[in-house]
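ENTRY TYPE: paired fold submission
RECORD: A
CONTENT: sequence, then structure tokens
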Amino acid sequence: MKAKFYLASLFISITFFVNGQRQYNIVWLVAEDQSSQFFPMYGDTTIALPALESLASESIIYDNAFATVPVCAPARSSIILGMYPIATATHNMRTYNSYRPEGEPTINVPSYSPVMPPGVMEFPKYLRAAGYYCTNNAKEDYNMRITDGTWDASSQEAHWENKTEGQPFFSIYNFHESHESGIWRYGDDSLFVNPNEVSVPPYFPEDPAIRHDLAVNYSNLLRIDRKIGHIIDQLKKEDLYDDTYIFFYGDHGGPLPRHKRSLKETGLKVPLFVKLPKALSKGSVRSQEMLSFVDLAPTVLSIAGIETPENMHGRAFLGQFAGGERDYIFASSDRFDAVYDRSRSVRSERWKLILNYRTDVPYALPVEYREQMSMMQRWRALSEAGELSGAPALWMRAEKDPIEFYDLYTDPFELNNLANNSFYQQEIKEHRRVLEDWMAKHQDYGAIDEQVLMKKWKKMSSEIKLKAPQEVIKGQQVSFINPNEYGHLIVSKSEGKWEPYDQSVKLSKDVKLKVVHIGLDDSPIVSVQ
């Protein structure tokens, strides 16, 4: 059955099977701000991560997994929707700010939520309609105001334990210790790694401050490894481990300069491995297929026996509807906090093309948040003193190249720009065509001034008023439908708790219903009389 726009058309009764497929539990373990290059299962021998290495020993390890944007909120929007941020206007960091209402006042950007196209909704709702208990612990930060009914629980206490007996669950755990802010928050704490023993990548200056912050990052990985171990132990203790898919991934590239906010591999390439249920497992396997964050939602739905909704841009790589392979990985970068930029990239197996539309700004964008980091301060000081040369000087240049082109086979750190080499012009032309076709296909919102976009969403939200659910009576049966082009129905059977609605939901007195849609005000609530 093809998933449709409205939940009422995709309800599947709570059972252990959907479309003949067993409903397994699914757990996501998410390390904030981490590149694959720092992990032992990807070749780094600096530290041992016992819990993650044990998990990886039973997993499919994906060597080519990529974020859609090298910063958290836009990247997370692509995960929750299965869509590219350039197509949903969630490409800037940030649009909707759940932490403070003022957004970025220094550049006259309030906190606002783009209006999604009709039929678009958060993927956990499909899971909930299929009978899953869905929890998020605890970061959301999806660059838009998600609607009621997305989660059964989303908080620091959210946990699968509150599900009903025998109910399958989908649970996310986010680990903030590995976040960019952890570099300065834990900067003066105990180090579990000797700074003199870390390997300094060639794009960083050789300096004690650089080594120290690299050691902090490794120490933070040890901190999250312990927490991950506790969750795995609990799954085993409750006899759930063998019946659970466990995903581990980073929500974009590493927390360090030239990682986060960069379209280089260091900003986009993430660790991803998946432990399958025991009945499906083939042990530790490595996969070279290229995966994008837009593939995560379709894959989880596929595992649950749900076909990919037509509006999603990704493809399932596991489960009942897995199939096909990617030839290209696409990514974007735009505004970062109060600093405007715009770049687009396409990556094939061997080649990487980056188009920079703002060549007047440096690679090392002066993002105030990042300037708190000791290694960022030291790197700038070395640059200003004229003490940088070679690769560490490249990132500190005052202007960007309009086109960057790299051979990832021979230049994995993307230090040798081949854009002006006549030998590669055919490859450059072809990759540029593919990239520009992708931008046109998705009507890249990054080409539109943000002030214009904000006026567009404000006008839409004022003009599109969701009508209340409409009661339908057939004989003795009473049900409700969504009378709007936008939105979908949700129902509340207890105060403050909303869930997807379907006509087979038992309606009783005082049950409430409403229509919701991302970027629009909720409809009026109706009560069953």
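RECORD: B
CONTENT: sequence, then structure tokens
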Amino acid sequence: MGEYFGDVLSRAMSRRDVLRGAFYGTAVLAVGSCGGSCAEEPLSFRTIYPNNEDRITLPEGYQHNVVIRWGDPLDNGPALDWNRIRQSGPTAQDVDRQKSCFGYNCDFVGYFQTPDNKHLLVVNHEYCNPEIMFPIPFLTNNAPTPGRPTQEESQLMLEAHGLSVVEIRRKTDGSWEYVKGSSYNRRITGSTKCEITGPAREHRLMKTYYDPNGESVFGTLNNCAAGKTPWGTVLTCEENFHSYFGGNRANITGDDAQLISSIHQRYGVPGSFAPYYGFMNLTDQQNRRRFLIESVNGEPKEAFRFGWVVEIDPMNPQSTPKKRTALGRFKHEAATYAIANDGRVVIYMGDDERFEYVYKFITKGRYNPADSSANMDLLDEGELYVAKFNDDLTGQWILIAKCERNAQGQYTITPNPNLPEPFRSDPVLCYINTRGAADSLGATKMDRPEDIEWNPVTKSAWVALTNNERRGASNQPGTDRANPRANNVMGHILEIMENGGDPAATSFRWQIPVLCGDPNVADQNNKLVIYGQNASSQVPAISAPDNFVIDRLGNIWIATDGNPSSSRLRKNDGVYVLNPFRRELKMFLSGVPGCEICGPEFSNDWKTFFCAIQHPGETDTNEPNSRWPYGDNASTPRPSVIAVWRTDGREIFA
């Protein structure tokens, strides 16, 4: 285990010095790096403020509409009967319909334009809310009621996960609608066959009773944030995969039992939410339970086949999703690209859990903009790094391992020589147990690193650190310069400035542009601080930054996940915009009760802003606290994707 930087700092400087240096030490560097293309004009819209209304709130001059909702059919068949499912539960026919209907809890939203000038959205479906989807009472005393979920409920939830690819079209009034029955429309679910590629393919820990060669897996799950590649594919991220696996690690037997159990423990397998999904109780044609980690009747190694970045080709509905194991295995929240100075592709990634790490992957090959097909396997070879943030506002990318493939398809893996056993003798473990490798190399433990986006205007990477109320608690890591707040309930935003502005650099400088909070509270630990200055009382409060999108002027659009918490703002989540050149923050959109805002995205002409309204109405009870998008006449809120546009037809940020 690496030394915590909180311990380093306690010897080196006072907390006051830490805060001052993190804010002021390099703040001017970002402003000076925009090369004359900065967003020098102030944000044009009038800010809104956090609220608790059961409607979407926007600034004056903007409108929105719902593009697609859970259960809408992607084929020409009927919609999923979500209202009846809520009243009486799903049937086998409902399970079958869910395979062709828009999934639940939409997260990432990616916009694409096809070669024939069609418009596509690729949307992740992260998880399910059975207490809202299915008949009351699903919960009793904060746990599933005995006998729940039923087999059909579990099967429907399995098919409601994954992704949707859907064609959309703009109407004359600026709104958008989806195209039912489009040939591009596609559902990828928890049962869709995916190919395993890269260095972990065919490793013994990847082989299961139904896939003895370790080459393929059924499904992709807990698809949270994602990224787009310059060659037109999506890198969808498997985040909290542990939630679906049940059983007892003590009941793992046979070869590698101790190794399997120790890695599962590091990743939180089995998960406490497994009873809510019931996947561990589903049996297959071999009368086995692949989500049960026990050796008898289960599959201890199935969990190793989740936690990856999965590449999807939205242009080809017949293509097979590929789990790219060279990018490492952890609870992925982001996989966003930048092109290095020499043409290699860099993928930035966050591991969304308290005290986890920031990673990046650099391809061996170079991006070929003239031939998309030449790029399709770029992500199977390269170098995997983890970040260390130093107390002097510099940092290093520490190599975990390098993998290369020969003409026969065999891999040579070169692990970091400082790694202990068993990583040296079995270097594939660098990819299967990436967290363990990062632990050994002394990487910096961060406050839930989520989305990481490369800003081509500032030529820097922006990191969302959502929150970490355990920072500084008893028997937990203390504060450090990159994570300066104990009990960090509000979260913060960090900027990485790679040396020479090159994403492939192995050293960098960094700063904290935003410590999130409320400008009108007395507690400095929860106060909004922008570039080292307490924000004025007129700046909207913000907490729990989650996902980013960067507009063409370099402004950072920030979607939040956690404003409603009683320890934070007690207001609906929303979308905020930071102009890093004027150091200006405004709120652009407020969601509805219980929801988080996900997947901020722009159309290619910058005139439409898309985002997902995930889990509207989510509470700790069987009764949702929102009726959106229908109002009081509906019993079941539905996760949806919305489009926002200016009424004057100009670019969204004009």
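NOTES ON RECORD B: Residues 1-36 have pLDDT under 50 and may be disordered. The chain has eleven helices and 35 strands.
STATUS: closed
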